[in-house]
Amino acid sequence: MRLAILDDYQNVALDLADWSRLGTDMEIKAFNSPARDEQLLVERLATFDIVIVMRERTAFPRHVIEALPRLKLLVSAGTRNASIDLDACERVGIAACAAQGSSQGVAFTAEMAWLLILALYKRFPHSDRALRAGRWQPDLARGLHGQILGLVGLGRIGSRMANIGRAFGMLVLAWSPHLTSERAEQLGATAVDKAELFECSDVVSLHLVLSARTSNIIARSDLCRMRKDAILVNTARAGLVDEQALLEILRTRRIAGAGLDVFWQEPLSNEHELCRMDNVLLTPHLGYAIRENLASFYAHAIEVVDAWRRGEAVPQLQR
Hints:
By secondary structure, the chain is an alpha/beta fold. It has 2 domains: 2-102 and 291-309, NAD(P)-binding Rossmann-like Domain (Rossmann fold, 3-Layer(aba) Sandwich); 105-282, Rossmann fold, CATH 3.40.50.720.
């Protein structure tokens, strides 16, 4: 059998786990660059029986899945992957399975969100560039104490964000479609409606799961409610936000800036408009790309492949 590992950008997949557990009859190939289009993706994978994908880095829509008749097992990091057409997999008999990453994945994503918040507030990138160019203190930093943190989503990551926000001395507001005041209070936040959160917050940080229900849940009207000195941080999924609306808000400097670790098309092209904006801090989806996290995922992926080959039950991707 042949197994493909996609989007191994750092060339580490084969070293982070013991692939020999799959036996000498399993041929394994890791790809360290993304397919430039769907036709190339199909050509790459035409001779593979098993494909391992890292979250939503590579999309598998219906027409791609139907063009891969040899493919029998698709293993994805995490319990959900919105970029895989699960109905198409079911129709053609592909098992679409989940492999867990590290149990500390929640902490890693929250760390990334706070890195972006602090870097924007303390003007780290701009000050670093200025200092190297011979300019001293080009801007004043800002303090987080006494500021308002608005969390869109108060689940495992959002609640961790709330704890850290309070440690910085911030007031924490929260909203999600089904959040109750009682639940928010238990987690140290105040539940408000979406309009109030965007109007009042100094920092808005997104922590919802992307689904058909939450796609573009952050609309132009929400972004327009933000204060001129507020920032938006997204370490969740780009699809939560109306892309064109956010670009316009940033282009016209309606808000102070944004910190983005996720994008509508990944990898992000360096020709994208975001790369020319000086009020945006960009990181290449690093909230998930942690050595411990990837090592855990690949180890669990090997377990899933091994169990599938033996005909045992394997964890299915959730819809």
